[in-house]
Amino acid sequence: RWxxxxxxxxxxxxxxxxxxxxxxxxxxxxxxxxxxxxxxEGEGCADDAIRFRNRFRRRDAKKADQVEKWICDQxxxxxxxxxxxxxxxxxxxxxxxxxxxxxxxxxxxGFLRSTRFAWCWYRSRHESAAMWRTxxxxxxxxxxxxxxxxxxxxxxxxxxxxxxxxxxxxxxxIDPASESPDCEDLQMHPYFWKRQEYEHEHEVRFITxxxxxxxxxxxxxxxxxxxxxxxxxxxxxxxxPAEEKCLTKAIQDFIPQLDCRCSDLYGRHSPGEELYxxxxxxxxxxEHLKWGDxxxxxxxxxxEL
Length: 305
Description:
The protein is α+β, with helices and mostly antiparallel strands. 39% of the residues lie in helices and 17% in strands. The chain has 13 helices and 13 strands. Strands 5-10-3-1-4-12-13 form a seven-stranded mixed beta sheet, sandwiched between helices. Strands 2-11 form a two-stranded antiparallel sheet. It has a two-stranded parallel sheet with strand order 6-9. The longest helix is centred in the middle third of the chain and has 18 residues, at 98-115. The termini are far apart. The relative contact order is 0.16. The mean pLDDT is 83.
């Protein structure tokens, strides 16, 4: 899915995720994992399952036959078959009944959710206070662009593009193709659309496929040098100057000269910085020096542990 190479992308995340990146790994959660935040992730529209099935077959009838047979033989449960009234009903009706089509649609999207993995980004040329509060609180924001991500992922199979935001009604997503025929292909890729309530995220996603993962439900591709794609790092804006200095040094040990500093979201005199300055006024360095060499007049015996 084509996007201009100079588009700026941001990712807001916990600090530990950044060091995962700096170590050459990228963390890609499954769509099923993302359902913890939004239960509608990767969900197709159930208002017309037969219409979905017909779209699916129009793409490639031969492949559709293989997929339908595999779902029937390997995925459909006895309960699914019993709901249709006959365990052989799918084979007999060729998925043409609404019940069979609903089963196919549910199983198909369930498989996609567990075998599709997403790298999610925020598209913007500047930082976002809302994204800091939602995803980056206490953490970091990393910036890159489309060209760099295309380059580092060139040897792997990814599909990427902007998210499409669709309306919902009574808790159900409205089929984007029913609003615009140009969106018909989007129905086959439900991991590229979300409810309109998330429109403020201006999300761009990189999607890849792989076997379902137990445990954390994610894959961790390695060998992706962070220096090839990270252009700058912004630290949580409420850090003290001392915290900023320590973290910047640790990060620049991986990527020397990287543009890394606290976000100026709240200005350079954040509450944390004022607290640090107040502490230094109350406990100036000279007092510690006097304590150490006993020039403060306090007997050494009073300082022994």
